Amino acid sequence: MMKSTWWRVLTGLLVLTLFAAGCGDDAESEVADKPVTATTPAAATGGSEVLKIAVAAPEEGNDFGWNQQGVDGAIAAAAAFGIEIEVADGLGYDDVRPVLRELADDGADLIIAHASGFNTAGPEIAAEFGVPVAIVDNPGATVAGLVADYTTSPHEGAYLAGFLAAKSSRLGKLGIVVSGEPPSWNSQSAGFADGARSADPGVELLYAVIGPAAYSDAAGANRVTTALIAAGADIIFGQGDGASFGMLEAIETNEAADGGKVLFIDVIGNKSSIDDGGHLLSSVLWDFSGAFERMITDIGAGTFGNTNYDLGLADGSVDLLQTDLIPADLWAEVQDLKQQILGGSVVVENIADADGVHARMSSVDVAGDDAAAATGGSEVLKIAVAAPEEGNDFGWNQQGVDGAIAAAAAFGIEIEVADGLGYDDVRPVLRELADDGADLIIAHASGFNTAGPEIAAEFGVPVAIVDNPGATVAGLVADYTTSPHEGAYLAGFLAAKSSRLGKLGIVVSGEPPSWNSQSAGFADGARSADPGVELLYAVIGPAAYSDAAGANRVTTALIAAGADIIFGQGDGASFGMLEAIETNEAADGGKVLFIDVIGNKSSIDDGGHLLSSVLWDFSGAFERMITDIGAGTFGNTNYDLGLADGSVDLLQTDLIPADLWAEVQDLKQQILGGSVVVENIADADGVHARMSSVDVAEG
Question: In the chain, is it the N or the C terminus that has fewer CB atoms within a 10 Å radius of its CB?
């Protein structure tokens, strides 16, 4: 037997790419030479014509997996429209802004940032250049016209793979080897198990995890796969990224218990061209081309960023690979089952948590678990919090730092604060926090969502990340996300009851889902108090979070238009709103009042303009994290912050009369009791539809 085509690919067989990462002068692009099968709508439709797209990938675009599928999908999408394509692959996971800027400078009308590790840089470049950017697995980060997300739901494809495996197994034992337990892998593992049991209820399912985040651990994958083959598995379903080559090495060098071949079912890509040994039974393919084509169409229609792109069996983005190892009659059965799923007569449950996967298996071997034997957890003696800006900004950073300090105080444990870190590579600081003995690191910025999990895997220390619930890893990584719409509803009710002129201004520094959620909640709350209230809505710019001058200008305009209360969502831009409020009178000659978000600026409100604030308090979530680490359940679930657990609430100030505050508290109880239901609106269109006037600056 040949040893080993798979391994040669892993260790360095390279092909020509269209763009040399980091070598801009040598960059090449090409115009697809296929016939044009679609056209982008003209600018008259509210969109813009797409003449060139670019794709950026962290690894080489010839890896037979994630990177190759992304690059190939982008090339196919460009070919479908007969437009130019530029490929930048092998970029790694460090600061990719220079390359993304170069792609924007080179005229890309769409940049596909094909890695969750690019989810901070991508939106920044979108805002800087006004070019649409697609990001991965972060649906909460959309910005109308600028940023959209694409996410794969592969569970139905994996169900077909499980059915195929159970029908193909000679020994009735299937192995499932995974390089971690992120939601996407869990979704496929559970789908595979359910599909296998639908074909053979008695099939044995042997499940093994190489390690908490062993995506590149080919040696570990070889070891674990060899063990499952020795335990009787004759088909391996492998999810590993780079680790999959180690699985294949084990499959090529080991026979099954009956002396026959061990077969392999892969995920994401198609390794048929290097399957010299004839072991590849199938693969759950992820095809991004259709989503990328829809993006091009949506840019032309002016609707890019209004919705995200969900990839699955229904739109052909997920499917099962047919190989010569599958008999025609069995393939026909698989196709019939596929039609039943698409028709709704077979429903495949989408399981994202590891416990749901483990419950389906005959045996479970989770490597890398060094938790305390007594409880499955470990004692927390010290926590650390890392924040991008100083922890005294009266907003996001201060609330995070203060919440961590409060949580440490509640448990009587040590706290270390690392603030003012910026958004560049924070790995050195996170490593130092881990080396200093932190038992939990709170990475308090979505810009840390790549570095945080890497440090968790490197040091085995639990890390909390922000607004990326799809990145959880049992025991290592958990997400915390705020749902502030109910608190904003209370703020809107308060504002409408407090307004003298019946006109409220809403000023936002962008339209991310969290701001949209609050804007819509505020509008609904205001209209519940006064159906005739006017709502004047203005966006400073696409991502103007620090634009204090722009905030001042826009806020001044709304005051001039008659607003006597401003609901402001701005981060650093909020100080510009406050300056406008302090230096301008309302149309009736009285004070303009302000309702803030996230933090409490009472201590600097010398002019008496702060009516209230929708407060975000992270301390309770951080306390639950400490408890869950002790119980061994950290990373099994995420932490959702809202009105119900006290993480979101409304600030009481002296400007609010006692009887009105009592009304607000009564309304709060109605929300908590379920008699008043507040809709959570994440899209900008849903916000705009609620307003009396809308002014969206294009930046």
Answer: N
